[in-house]
Specification:
Number of strands: 4
Order of helices and strands: EHEHEEHH
Mean pLDDT: 89
Strand content: 15-25%
Number of domains: 1
CATH topology: Glutaredoxin
Structural class: alpha+beta
Strand order of the largest sheet: 2-1-3-4
CATH superfamily: Glutaredoxin
Distance between the termini: 33 Å
Shape: globular
Number of helices: 4
Helix content: 25-40%
Radius of gyration: 15 Å
Amino acid sequence: MTPEVVFYTRPRCPYSFRLRRALRRRGLPFREIDIWRDADAAAAVRRVADGNETVPTIHVGDRWLVNPTADEVCTAAGYQPPEQAPGGGLLARLRGLM
């Protein structure tokens, strides 16, 4: 079972945009929180990011990841994207047909 992935962000952040897109492409579900709308979320991010409101910040299980890569988030969540799963996912099977 994959632990909940909480994605802390703020509007128009290009780094959050890229990570969000990469996680969606991998199929990893996450819950997104805008730190500009949630003061408690902003305080949580500051606690783990040396007093800064650095986004994206991810909370998964008992780990906090500040400005991580999509691979780091997937690893922390114990999530393996379908195309990387043993035996291959749909993309791997389609590639094998070509």
